[in-house]
Amino acid sequence: MPEVTIRYFAAARSAAGESSATADAASIRDLIGTVSTGRPELARVLGICTFLLDGQRADPGTPLHAGAQVDALPPFAGG
What we know:
By secondary structure, this protein is α+β, with helices and mostly antiparallel strands.
């Protein structure tokens, strides 16, 4: 499986306790499972996030490539 980086923003960063992490994952779904193992609050937040893969919107089934950058963007409020 390729090694990828996930960057957390807003509530995802708070739940993760860090701004980014690296992991081996074949898809965004695999990445979510890997980084949230044993971290139920992070799993909850990632479950409602929008994801960008190298700057382009992606869904959980999107395959990943070595060196990919995934951004986890929870819903934002504001005006």
